[in-house]
Amino acid sequence: MTEFGETTTVSWNDSLEAIEKCYELGWTDGLPVVPPTQERVAEFLQRAGRQAGEVVGEIRERRREITAGKVAANAVMAGCLPEHLPVVLAATEAMLDPVFNLVGPSSSMGGAAVLVIVNGPVAGQLNINSRNNLFGPGNRANATIGRSIRLILMNACAAVPGLFDRSVIGHPGKFSYCIAEADTQTHWTPLHVERGFSPDRSTVTVFASESPRQVRATGYPDAILHAIADAASSLGTSMSTSGSVGDPSARLRQGQVAVTIAGASSLWTDWSKDQVKAYLHARIKRSVADLKRAQVLPQSPEGTPDAGDEETYVSLVPEPDDILLVFAGGEESNMSSVIPSWGPKVASTAVTKEIR
Amino acid sequence: MAQEHVLVNPTTQAIVAPFDGAPRLPSLAGTRLGIIDDSKRNADVLLEELVDLLRTRYEISDVKWHRKPSASRPADPKAIQDLARDCDSVIVAIGD
After folding, report:
1. Residue A80: what pLDDT?
2. Which residues of B touch A348 (CB under 8 A)?
């Protein structure tokens, strides 16, 4: 044992052999990784001013402690630069917060990914993309920070596909799922400030969630929000299903939802984030009749809706603040995305931590 | 000539403290049963049926029922302590 915990001595002739060794060791997500040599891991930790043995958090149900050394090793493998490590550490700390309940989203058939949203000055300093191709490829920081989280889940948190990770279909965000908010390019209050941090601080917010559903609406704020609310009110999301909640008065699971809105901030001059969230909250709902047709709510024996069911609606999101509204995406258009939570709010809640 | 390198192992091992399981009950007759209903759909249906069977066939005396607020969250440690204090055996089941 070393200061890094367990180490493995391997030999290789060239970089291709080095990559293949990591495949043989079972440490990859299916893509090639950078070998986590002791020297590289030490460099990452030294730059971040952290000790290898420092406990970042634990996943109690799996009897595992996650140290800064393990986080750094996975960040090296993901292709991070040393300066990315503090972001990865903060995201790991956030997803190991008991409120996040990592054991749920990392094992569930629901197949969640952990969306990482970066706010504050660090996004600009590290060139974390908040604009064009928001969820797409092409940016090292987004790709490698997001990928680190998946490698940490698989390697350090034992969420191995087919073993503890029981995802039925999963989604592409499980490879990498990291964005920043374009918080210097909007009058809207940044997400981290809404969640209690000072604007000059940098944070990560982690959110256990399904894949983004693109919403193609442009033009006027009400039209855009109408389309977003419609997409967020779909049948078939975790938010619009029932079960797995102990409260007998809860008709639906209800959950949090992330919404990204792109384009020019000037379109929203007359709207605050609170106004947008209130508008959406009032409209993210589904009729009792539809919920019965989908057998989310119990049907009558005849399978027909009861009187009033078409006009009675159930909200899919508990509170307006359960809408994580993020100004991000290309400047070219007001395209948006809706990202439903993995599960009920009572099962997992988004967590924000400061990047140190 | 291949060169040796030391890699930091990125995986973790479960740290499980050794423990002794509780002694088996010689009989269920007259014992108190605890139930943890994880709140998955139909878990209550399955467990209620089981309780009925245990009452009629094995004459359990009393049942203490705990329903978790969320299927995905671990049971509240206080609830587990209460069940351990008040029950002779506990059934935990997932219904899906």
Report:
1. 98
2. 72
Q: Considering the entire predicted model, what is its pTM?
A: 0.96
Cα distances from A144 to residues A7, A105, A127, in angstroms, run 23, 21, 12
Q: What is the pLDDT of residues A91-104, one digit of tens each?
A: 999 999 999 999 99
Query: How far from A182 is each of A71, A90, A165, A179, A297, CA to CA, in Å?
Result: 27, 20, 33, 9, 40
In the chain, the amino acid numbered A102 is L
Which chain A residues are within 8 Å of B13, Cβ to Cβ? Answer: 64
Q: What sign does the CA torsion over A258, A262, A266, A267 have? A: negative
Cβ atoms within 10 Å of A307's Cβ, excluding its own:
7
Q: Which of A244, A247, A297 to mutate to test the interface with B (most CBs of B within 10 A)?
A: A244
pLDDT at position A261 is 97
Asked whether residue B22 carries a pLDDT value surpassing 90, the answer given is: no
CA nearest A8 in B: which residue?
B7
| Most confidently modeled range among A5-9, A192-196, B39-43 | A192-196
Is residue A218 scored above 80 in pLDDT?
no
From CA A216, how far away is CA B82, in angstroms rounded? 53
CA distance A52 to B94: 38
Secondary structure, 3-state, A147-201: HHHHHHHHHHCCCCECCCECCCCCCHHHCCCEEECCCCCCCCCCHHHHCCCCCCC
- Alpha-helix runs per DSSP H in chain A: 15-24, 38-48, 68-78, 85-95, 121-125, 140-151, 191-194, 221-232, 273-283, 288-293
For the record, the structure tokens of A3 come out as 């200061």
Can you read off the two tokens belonging to residue B29? 């007759």
Q: Taking CB atoms and an 8 Å limit, are A11 and B40 in contact across chains?
A: no
Half-sphere exposure of A272 (CA within 13 A, CB side): 6
Q: Is the CB of residue B5 less than 8 Å from the CB of residue A41?
A: no
Complex prediction ipTM: 0.93
Q: How far is CA A57 from CA A73, A89, A220, in A?
A: 16, 10, 45
